[in-house]
Specification:
By secondary structure, the protein is an alpha+beta fold. It contains four helices and three strands.
Length: 166
């Protein structure tokens, strides 16, 4: 696990950034207050999310809290286990980002009962008027999923073929 230390440090730094930005938003914004960052394209809008991604919910904030806390602990356990199996830089980076995102949002759920979201982006009005409001932890998970897709499409097959060659 000593070789994984730098990846845990990276996860810790992302968690700190996530918690700092959420604290700054909660301290300087009223709930639902919005301020332009890059015109109407990017705004900071303080919202509280008691649900999961895209505010998916079980309809009860208490049930949401405990189900998502439980799921987060299970996911974190799996991620730490996965860390013991990762070999390459990309795999370790993916695990670090997912771990940071899961822990960052778990901290909010445990201590606040909701996740602080604030990054509010506008995309072309093809699918939705505005994208769901998110945070640094969500961004880390999204980047990790994107990297995982790239890894599966382009690298995983090559590694498996190399392992088959005698």
């Amino acid at each position: 696990m000593k070789s994984k230390l730098k990846w845990f440090i990276l996860a810790g730094l992302i968690i700190c950034l996530d918690q700092l930005t959420k604290y700054l938003i909660r301290s300087n914004f009223d709930l639902y207050q919005s301020r332009a960052v890059i015109g109407d394209l990017v705004r900071f809008t303080y919202v509280r999310n008691t649900g999961a991604a895209f505010s998916m919910s079980f309809g009860n904030d208490t049930i949401n809290r405990w189900i998502f806390v439980t799921i987060s602990f299970l996911a974190i356990g799996f991620i730490v286990y996965y860390f013991t199996k990762t070999k390459g830089i990309l795999q370790n980076l993916i695990a670090s980002l997912v771990l940071a995102g899961a822990v960052g949002n778990l901290i909010d759920r445990i201590f606040l009962g909701f996740v602080t979201d604030f990054i509010d982006c506008d995309f072309p009005d093809i699918i939705m008027k505005r994208f769901a409001i998110f945070n640094v932890a969500d961004s880390a998970i999204t980047i990790a999923i994107t990297l995982l897709i790239i890894y599966i499409l382009f690298f995983d097959k090559k590694e498996k073929k190399e392992e088959e060659i005698p």
